[in-house]
Write a structure and sequence with these properties.
Layout (H helix, E strand, L loop, with lengths): L1 H43 L3 H5 L25 E4 L3 E4 L3 H15 L5 E3 L4 H17 L4 H11 L13 E4 L5 H14 L5 E5 L4 H4 L4 E7 L2 H10 L3 H9 L1
Helix pairs in contact: 4-5
This protein binds zinc ion.
Zinc ion binds next to strand 4.
Length: 240
């Protein structure tokens, strides 16, 4: 009898022990995953209300290219981002989320090389390219035509709208490849499209630029990504 009681006590003790272990496992799992979820949630909500509070609208599908100048009534509003760069206020939250989540989830550091450019800076860049070609012996008009393949004419550059961002780190091929691969796969989720793809240079009239991303908003970016269109083709299709 006494032995039986001892055995029962032993079983009870073991059961309590296992239950305790289960409780600890459950609690730590809950804490770990719950915390992770909480972190992600708070990251995805970074400054979301900043834009909400703005009474500010931009036609995010706006086509700016070699034949479409920035509309005169374009409402340019800028915000500072890391590295003393400026971007259009409207994309600030999505850009922040993209940079944070790329780092947090995939360990990819997105570096902004160039964002908003005022008209006079765009003009300086354009003119310096033209001059270089002229020095090589090309006529002025030939030099202008050749420059247009890699630099937009002042007034025709997406960079002047603050909606375009060049992602790269000078001289870092490995990091840049990692960055561009990540962007090609994920940027649309945050409202950015690869604006000058390799297989569409005949349409965009701009050479392949794996670093240049244009903000069009999350909805349109997904549509463009899924259909593999350029912004030019999207506009052409939606005319009909
Ligand atoms: Zn660019």
């Amino acid at each position: 009898m006494a032995q039986k009681r001892k055995l029962k006590k032993g079983i009870k003790k073991t059961l309590i022990f296992f239950r305790l272990i289960l409780l600890v496992l459950f609690l730590s799992g809950f804490f770990y995953y719950g915390l992770d979820k909480y972190k992600k949630h708070s990251i995805s909500n970074i400054n979301r209300d900043v834009v909400k509070k703005l009474d500010y609208k931009v036609d995010l599908s706006m086509l700016v290219n070699y034949e479409h100048k920035i509309p005169k009534d374009y409402d340019l509003r800028l915000r500072n981002v890391e590295g003393n760069k400026e971007v259009a206020t409207i994309l600030y939250n999505d850009l922040n989320r993209m940079i944070t989540l790329a780092k947090y989830e995939d360990g990819v550091e997105l570096k902004i090389n160039s964002a908003y450019r005022p008209n006079n800076i765009q003009k300086d860049i354009f003119d310096s390219y033209v001059k270089d070609y002229q020095k090589q012996g090309y006529s002025y008009s030939a030099a202008v035509q050749m420059t247009k393949i890699s630099v937009a004419e002042p007034g025709y550059s997406e960079h002047e709208t603050g909606l375009a961002i060049d992602f790269s780190e000078s001289g870092n091929t490995v990091k840049n490849t990692k960055m561009w691969n990540w962007l090609a796969k994920n940027a649309y989720k945050y409202g950015f499209i690869k604006r000058y793809p390799n297989d569409k240079t005949n349409i965009t009239k701009v050479k392949y630029e794996p670093w240049h991303y244009r903000y069009v908003g999350i909805e349109l970016a997904k549509e463009i990504y899924d259909s593999n269109l350029t912004l030019e083709e999207y506009h052409e299709q939606n005319k009909k």
